[in-house]
Structures are given as structure tokens and as C-alpha cells.
Amino acid sequence: MILTISAYGSPVLRKETVDIDKEYPQLQELIKNMFDTMTFAEGVGLAAPQVGLPIRLFVIDLSPLADDKPEYKNYKKVFINPEIIEFSGNDVSFEEGCLSIPNVHEKVVRKDKVLINYFDENFTEHEETFSGYPARVIQHEYDHLEGNLFIDKISGIRKQLIKGKLNNITSGRANCKYKIKTK
Asked: Is 141 annotated in the active site?
């Protein structure tokens, strides 16, 4: 099922998220719906707050990039109750977008490696280091669990330049192919 995406201005995007356990109601269905929603919206990551749930869960799917990066074929992961233990490596600037902020893309500086502890969809615990693009996507989605958006990492001048686009999103005038809500 395709879920409605909470857009910029929606309070759930700024809420503190909570851990869940394997008894969370309809967890496997939620994970499937999040993957379906992300694929429909042509994203590579989606966090639970983006579908209106203040819980510590996000999914990533880099397989749409497999034509250019064969190592991303079938690269689908579920992160439950993640905690980033360490950011490391170089600072890398790269243009990011977000399904909750449609039609806005800005360069964001992030570390190119992360060490993260998380549970997968079977509640198997992992501690892994990710680097490059997967590390960037993980940091972006993790930020959602912390109530942060990628636009929080851009300069005040850049924020002023996109203010009109942000106002359009909060007033329901964003043009995108998927359903969004700001309340």
C-alpha cells in the first residue's frame, strides 16, 4: 500500500522518535508499505516520521542506481532502533533531496563513513560501517529520526533562496506525483 508522505511543515517531522520492539503492531506490513511508498515516490530512503509515525525505523533501497553502480543491485536494508556510534572519514559535499521536501535539492556536507548499530526486519542486531553513498543515505534518514531535515544543514542564505518553495510545500502547493500532507 502506498502511504501518504508527511511534508515539510508537518509536526511529526520534528518529533522525538521512540524505539520499538518486535511486537510493534503490523511491523512487517509497515516495512513493506514503506518500501512500496519509497519506490512509488522514486526515493532511495524513507523514515517512519515521513509516513506519520514517530518511531525509530527507516528503510533504504539503492537498487534503482544499479545500472550505474552494480554493487547496489538488491541493496535493500531495514534499520530499526538505529544508533550511529561514530561519524568518520572525509567531509563530502553532495546534492540531496527529500521526499518530504519535494522539488528542493541542496548541497549538504556529511562524513563519508558511519558506524551504526541497528536491528534488521527480523530483529537481528548488527553493528556495521557504511561508506560512500550508503553512508550518506543512512545519515539523511537517521536525521529524520532525530527530528532534523537536510535543509537544517544549509546556510541561512540558501534557506532564504528556497523560502518560496518551502512556503509552497507548507501551503499544499507542492507539485509531486505522490500524496503529501503538512498537518
From this structure: yes
